[in-house]
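Sharing a chain and its predicted structure for anyone who wants a worked example. Both blocks are below, sequence first, tokens second.
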Amino acid sequence: GRNVIYRADTVPKFWIKKVSGSGTGFSMLAQNISSDMNKLGLPATGKVDLVLKSIDHHGEFIVDTREKTSNPLVTLDYTGANFPFQLKAEDFGGGPGTPSFDGKTRINAVMKIFDAEEFSLSGKGWFDNLAITTVPFEPEYASKIYSNVMSSIKSMTVGVDSNFSVDKGLTFNLTSDADKQFMNGIAKEMNNQLAGVKDKLMSELNAKLDENSKDALAKLGDFNSIQGQMDGYKNKLTELQNQLENKKKEAQNSTKKAAE
């Protein structure tokens, strides 16, 4: 007899192994699109890159219908960059202290569909080159400090994680580093304010020292003048004393001669 061994059938009836395309500001690639992923042993994957109106778009997908896999049924991953980000104070009512935002945004969002009863959505946004201004309020010094704190914030991140399942319902979690950025801004502004107070105190102290020094120098000048006069009197007294000594000697000599 003869043994005939047939290879396992791993080729589905429909299989696009690879398809790609490109153009100005555009490219795409898809692989392993098939009618039977269990037989092929590979999920369908693809990616797309697109530049539209100076905004960069990048998307990827994975579709995996295999029975034995750790992947979700569908995974969609999107990243975009250079989105303009503008919010005016008027959009929030425009009251005292209301901020306005101007900058660029990068975002990433990932959606996973596990089955007909569960999916998740997560995303993150990066706000770069932020310019934040505020509506003035009274008192002016407090408004200036608040404005300086807000304008010191140049970047910020915001994230979201959500999940839905028939059993657990919807969960939603929002994260941000806005509070950290604000506290860093306060610390920086307080250091600036303290440095300003220090400079002001040093300036006032130096001015006071200069003023006192002038008074001291003036008094020292007066003292030097008095000392000069005293030295003059002393010299005159010495001169007078010398003259008296000379007269005394002359008188003694005259008396001596007369006695002889």
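Comments welcome. The chain is about 40% helix and 40% strand.
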